[in-house]
Each structure stands twice: as C-alpha cells, then as structure tokens.
Fold this sequence. Notes:
Strand order of the largest sheet: 2-1-3-4-5-6
Largest sheet: 6 strands, parallel
Amino acid sequence: MIHNDRKAMDPAIKKCLIDKLLNNNISVSELIELRPEINEFDLSEIIQHIYDLNLEQVRKIAALAPVMAKVDALKNSQRNTRFIKKVKNNFRKHTAKHNGLKNRVVVVEGDSWFNYPILLSDVIDWVAMEENMAVYSLASGGDWLMNMLSAKKYVEQLSTLQPDVFIISGGGNDLVGNRRIAAMVTHKGDSNEFENSAFAKYLYQSAANPPDKPEDFKRGTQFISKDFYALLSFFQLQYYFIINGILTGGEGENGKFPGIQIITQGYDYAIPSDKKIAGYNPLKWYRLFARTFLGHGGWLKTPLQLRGIYDPEDQRKIVYAMIYLFNEMMIDIGRIFSEMLGENRVFHIDSRGSVGKNGWTDELHPLPQHFKKTAAAFIHCINNPNKNGSAVIEVVKQQEGGQK
C-alpha cells in the first residue's frame, strides 16, 4: 500500500546517493531509498554526468532527425485518425463482436519497436489491428526515454483520453544512439564492474529467468564499464518516475487514472552486424533498404569496433549481457509497483530469445513476423491482465529450436 507521509530527503544525502550511483557503488537499499526522492532536475543532472555532456549537448544528440520526425509524424497521424474514427462510434460502450472481449483504449509512447520508419507492420500496428483495441500513438523511431519524460506528451494524452492501457518502450536509443554504447565498454575484457554493482548482481540473483547462456553473460560483463551500470540504475529511476506519476501522481493510491494498466517492453538479444544481404529476395525488399540507408552496423558493431572490440562473438556477448540486465530491471519495476499497490498494474513483455539469429531486419529491429509475435504477447496481456497473481511478465513465444 502507498503512504504519502514521507519526509523529503536531506539534499546532501540525496547528492551523496546520486554520486554513489554514478560511481557504481550504490547499494540496493540506497537505490530503493533514492527512487521516490528523484525529480526531473535530478534526472537531468544524472544523465549529463553519465554522458559527460552538458544539457544542451545531451538534448542535441537525443533530438530526432528532421526526416525521421516527419516520417514518424506521418505514421502517427494515420494511426490516430483511425483511432478517432474507431472511438467516436460508441467504442467504449461495447465489446468486440467477433470474440466478445471488452473494448480497450490504448495510449502508446515509445521508440522504433513501436514506430518503425518503413511501411512495415511493427508491434503497435499489429496491436491496433485488433477489433477490440483503439490505439493512440505517440511513438517515434529513434526517440530517447529522456525525451519522452521531458516532453511529457503522454501526460496530456492520458488526461485527455483516459485510456485503459498505457504502453511504453524506451531506453534502447539512450544506449545505442550516437554510438553511445562505445562509452559503456572497455576493450580490455577485464572489467569487474559487474561485481561492484550491487543492483546488477541483485537483478541477476533474483532473475525471473536465469540467462540461457550464463557463460556468454559472464564474458559479456567482462567488457562492460561502470557507466552502463549507472545507466541501468538511471533507467529504473526514470521508469519509476514516469510510472509512479501515472499510478499515484500525488492523488493517493488510485491517482488520476484508476485501474489503468501499464505495459513495458524490453528488447531481444540484438546481434551486432554490418553485413548487407547476400542476394535479393523481392518479398523482403525492406531488409536491403534498411541495411543500406538506416545505419546498419552503426548502432552496435561499428561503435564496438571503434572501442577496440573486434571479435564478433565478444560483441554479441556484450549486447547479450546488456539486454539481459535491461529486461530484468524492467521486470523488477513491475514487482516494485505490485508490492506498492497490492495488485499487478505494471506488466513487462519479455522478448528475449524470440527473434533468433536470422530474424532481424537490421541490427535492432526484427522482421515483421517477429514484431507480430511480440504484439501477440501485448494483446494477450491487455485482454488477460493477471491483476492478483504473482506474474508481472508476459513472455514472447520463442523460435522453435531456440536461437536460429
């Protein structure tokens, strides 16, 4: 249950805890103590220190490219026109005709897994095809979680639309945009920062799903620097700030949006690659297009090479370890709010292992059939929220035979 009689933390103590976070020596209990004290100013200060940039520089590198912004806006305009048309026709008062499921209004904020900048069906396109779901999209390919938080477009639309469900995907671009992943690793392969990170070890030890390749995880962590673990903790602070604002918002246990369901999204184990497609399959023309024009190799492989990490297997294992911990961090967010509220209101879609080796359009984005599989997990979670059970995870069905 939520209690609002907490006294504000002494500023000197808060600064000390933030310094510990940045230096990867904050304890789990200290992170728990810090979470509810964090405000937008604190988040801005933390990211400037992690990226070693001033706020203007951070905003500049996080800004969407003009062409990308226009493409995103066009796709969202088309989606939201369909949303308005659907909702105007007594949508909220009825159930879907073909399956009798309750009609659901959904607001979406997120990145390119939710708004892929080619005329393909991404996760949200598939969700919006459901008869009983009306989806309003704010998602932008290439968007950073910090942009979503600072712009607060989702706040306005939540207040206006009063949806049943809020879906959010963010964090990937904060890590890999502008070659940032290079700043999160060391080429020597002798890092012990995982052992220094109490939060990362807690996530690993309390994991919902132990890594299917523990040796790959261990090898990957040997290249990861303290800045990634600071970013991992920072991600949780950001998500806590966003979700706590929606669920409580200073309004007591129910907040402004009583009963709202929040669903978060992780990513699958992306594979660093700069390979173009051998041959040409006209049915998958978009793969050649994406890998030629959308920066294939520039998010993962090239930055790691520039950092001095050339072995493709080491590159893959680094990303494996990062994605593993990111998903466990998001699952932990669901547990936090379940304990706070006494019911499951925050759920996580776990895509790890669902795409496979050859299921990628480019370095970061699955082929449409895998977006569809992830969407199916969202759809099931929306229609069947396990509010009083122990699970806050919806696992995307894996490829038959595992990683292929």
